[in-house]
Amino acid sequence: MGSRARWRQSWAPQPLTPLMEGPGPEMQEEGTKKESSWEVIREWFRTQKISPSGSFSQSSSSFYGTIHAKTQDLRLLLGVLGCPLAPIPSAHDPTLSIHIKDTPFETSTAKYIIQQYLAATGCLKQQKDTKNMYATGMVKMICCETEISSGKNVKCLGTRSSENGCFVLWQMQPGMWSLELVVGDHKVVAGSNGKTVWRHTPWLGTHAAKGPQRPLRRLIQGLDPKTTASLFTNAQCLGENRIGTVDCFVLKVSADRAAVVERSEGPAEVIRHILYGYFCQKSGLLIYLEDSHLTRVPTQDNDTVYWETTIGSSIGDYRDVDGILIAHQGRSVATVFRFGELSMQHSRTRMEEIWTIDDVMFNVPGLSMDHFIPPADIFDNINSP
């Protein structure tokens, strides 16, 4: 009862797009306009101006303008890298036996690679089921660098200033998780009760996710091998590739058409969301993860703007935790690319996150479903007729 009361806060639900998954279309009437998660990134691009002469300038170089720019940088970082979701829902238990009859070669090969991954991480020989997990970690987020191009003019703006932070992550099967992430003076809280995914930020309030329930991307970056394996259960093997000097098998999964349509909102159309996993041929471990998300948005002047978000994560420092190999550090590089069909102007923003895991614990006593109850307004909305 205490946990439920703690979450009974009056937060207004709005659509959640944790991977900047679709610019919120501007309302026709200014009085009814609501800020969406895409407003953060759109505000960032508005601060990077191109003069009629073709020269570039930032909105303000004053002391207060610099503070505003740093705030926008951090909001953009947290919007893209704070709590993005995986492209697809988790599948069935990946430790079940493989059935390769009438299965395409690319799919059966991927299933074999995933079984090797489960064996390498220790999941196949684990004696007891993992009911829940707790993890804490540190993050260093490096602010944005933007390249703006207009015809022949190209300019790079921004500095590589950084902010340090920390996070606490709880997970409980099936499909429940809770994340608290604090960076600088900003805090992001997100969670899932197994049916609904939500997020709260101070500048956007609370948002409920559209589309199928999907796992937190931070979990599949080496923290939860079983969830990672379940995402690639029906993957295709694309062949071999190298990450640095390491030979890897490359597996690919993508959200189906029905799922991306369900995640579209208004005129903003989600076109695709693809996930690639690079599994080391020698160790069998996942060492690199990349996902690419593309959204198309028509503008008022009949132009079309595309927003492509790509996140690539290097994963390493695997350590044994109760018989399971867990990755304890990594680096994510995100790129947000904005371009149009008719306009020659495009913008590309790059940002980074370096993360380390301080502590991991399985089967925490006393953890219950009450710890994953959504905020009150979302909870009431779900149960209303």
TrEMBL record:
Region feature Disordered, mapped onto this chain: 1-33
A Pfam family this chain is assigned to: DUF620
InterPro entries noted in UniProt: DUF620
Protein name: C-type mannose receptor 2
